[in-house]
Each structure stands twice: as structure tokens, then as C-alpha cells.
Specification:
The chain is an alpha/beta fold and 279 residues long. The protein has eight helices and ten strands. It binds adenosine-5'-triphosphate. It comes from Streptomyces broussonetiae.
């Protein structure tokens, strides 16, 4: 363990090293399609890393290999210095679609993780109630997912992910389906909770403002086949406070513009390709 500048201690085994990651798929027509080509970047223990890039550049494919759900064609992912060759231990996920079980109550959804890990039911229930309190959902324990708003469902998903105290948190556009205000509120809440647990985070988003506001490091990917175009360290101080307000800081605007200059070309190239123009 090492102490961090903001909140909880970070775990050295949460270091993520992605080197020369290449992924090829076989298309239905039997052709080889290269989705990723030599992707390399690192996420330091307890660091919040955002990945941005045009649609189809291989962001989700990269996450699949960090989690161990998929295998690289070439290259490697190492977590805590060990090569990932199965499902990575200590990883929690949040996706754009709610991964909540509709037939389980809010409490039931949140305590599932600890119960699967063998935590006695009583203890798991206490922890789940505590996490629901932390995400502002005390009093909603007996509701079912369909009885909640989109923002409330995200809070449940966040409690369900963080109750496991993961060393790595993988987030694939977790707030992509929310309205702008709810998204800003959820992002601020996520930062507060992340500071309490300090997992290493890989956060995929199409929203560059969101990436800069949340992250310590922003990785910009090229259009397909995806590779790393540039890596930006975000030197905005922590704790960041309100995600909505940070957007008015001169340094935020400067970083946002700098990264957009790099990203724009790739977005335009990907658009030209899908629109049938020349890349
Ligand atoms: N199992 C698969 N078989 C064939 N091609 C695949 C497979 N999975 C992904 N791809 C292709 O790999 C490319 C990268 O997909 P991926 O979903 O990783 O992109 P992305 O950057 O996450 O996209 P988006 O931003 O639109 O979510 C796409 O062209 C996709 O069609």
C-alpha cells in the first residue's frame, strides 16, 4: 500500500500495463479485421485514466482484454506485474446499460457481490445498506430497478460495483445515457466515492469534458485500427469538487482545447469513413 494525495491508500497491485496490444477479428466474410494495433499505455495504481477516441476505434475491445474476458492477438496486459490470462481478480464494472437484475430489489442487487465472494449474508446486508447510504439511496432498499429513475439506477450500479472494494474499476460510458445535469451530478459523486476506495480506473467516454474533469490521465486513440495517438496528464488539483464548476477554470479550458486539437482529426477521419468519404 502507498498513500495517495487524495483520500484512501492505493494498492500497488492495481498497476495496469498495456503493451503492444493488437487484436484481430475474423469477419463473417472470413476476412481478418484489425481492431487494435500496438496499443500501449499504463495506469498507475489508484489513477483515474480516461480513454477517448472516435467510434469503433477499439475502446471496448481494449477493456475486454484488461478484464480478461478476451485475449489479445499480440501484446499483453499486466495487472500488478502479472500477465492477464483469465478473468482479472478484483475488477468491478460499470457499463452504459444498467447491469441490474430486474427481479432483485435494490438491496438484493447490491449485496450480490459480497455474497458471491462468500461474505456471510448478515454482514453483506450491513455493507449493502451502508453503500446505499453512501450513494444517497437509504430508504430505497426494497424498491426494484424498474421503480427507480435512470440516475437512481446508476447509483445502485455504483454501490454494487464499489461494495466489492475493487482494485480496478472498468467503466464503459457509464453515464452515457443520462441527461446532462444528472450526468454531472453522478460524475461528481463518482469522484467522491473513488477517492474513498481509490481503485485504478479506466473510464471510456465520448465526452471530452467529462474525461478532463474526472481523469488524471487522458489517452487519445486513433481511428480504426485503434492505436494510442497521445497521452495527456491532467494537472487539475484534487479533490476536484463539482464536475460542473471545474469546466469554467482556465486550466480546464486550456487542456480541453489542447486534447480536442488531437482528437478532432481522428473523429473527422472516422466520420468520413462511415459517411463514405475518403479517410
Ligand atoms: N467480436 C468481434 N468480431 C468482429 N469485429 C469486432 C468484434 N468486436 C468488435 N469488433 C470490431 O472492432 C472495432 C472496435 O470495436 P469497439 O466496440 O471496441 O469500438 P469502440 O471504440 O468501443 O466503439 P464505440 O465508441 O462506438 O463504442 C469495431 O469496428 C467493431 O466492429
Amino acid at each position: 500500500m502507498a498513500s495517495s494525495s487524495a483520500g484512501a491508500a492505493v494498492r500497488e497491485d492495481a498497476h495496469i500495463e498495456i503493451s503492444g496490444l493488437t487484436k484481430r477479428f475474423l469477419t463473417p466474410a472470413g476476412e481478418v479485421f484489425t481492431a487494435l494495433e500496438g496499443v500501449s499505455f499504463t495506469v498507475e495504481p489508484g489513477q483515474f485514466c480516461a480513454v477517448v477516441g472516435p467510434t469503433g476505434c477499439g475502446k471496448s475491445t481494449t477493456l475486454g482484454m484488461v478484464s480478461g474476458l478476451d485475449r489479445p492477438s499480440e501484446g499483453s496486459v499486466k495487472v500488478g506485474g502479472r500477465e492477464v490470462d483469465g478473468i482479472t481478480d478484483g475488477v468491478s464494472f460499470m457499463f452504459q446499460a444498467d447491469a441490474l437484475l430486474p427481479w432483485k430489489s435494490v438491496l438484493g442487487n447490491v449485496l450480490m457481490g459480497p455474497v458471491f465472494r462468500g461474505v456471510p449474508k448478515q454482514q453483506a446486508q450491513t455493507a449493502a445498506r451502508d453503500w446505499l447510504r453512501r450513494v444517497g439511496l437509504s430508504g430505497f432498499e426494497d424498491r426494484y430497478p424498474h421503480q427507480l429513475s435512470g440516475g437512481m439506477r446508476k447509483r445502485v450500479a455504483m454501490a454494487a460495483a464499489l461494495i466489492n472494494e475493487p482494485k480496478i474499476l472498468i467503466m464503459d460510458e457509464p453515464f452515457g445515457a443520462l441527461d446532462v445535469q444528472t450526468k454531472a451530478i453522478m460524475s461528481t459523486e463518482l469522484l467522491g466515492l473513488w477517492e474513498q476506495i481509490r481503485p485504478s480506473v479506466i473510464f471510456i467516454t465520448h465526452d471530452l469534458d467529462e474525461a478532463v474533469a474526472l481523469a488524471d490521465r487522458v489517452v487519445v486513440m486513433t481511428s480504426s485500427p485503434g492505436s494510442v495517438k497521445a497521452v495527456f496528464d491532467i494537472d487539475l488539483p484534487r479533490p476536484r469538487g463539482s464536475v460542473q464548476e471545474i469546466r469554467f477554470q482556465p486550466r480546464f479550458i486550456e487542456l480541453q482545447q489542447q486534447i480536442w486539437e488531437t482528437l478532432r482529426e481522428e473523429v473527422e477521419r472516422a466520420y468520413a469513413r462511415t459517411a463514405g468519404g475518403k479517410a
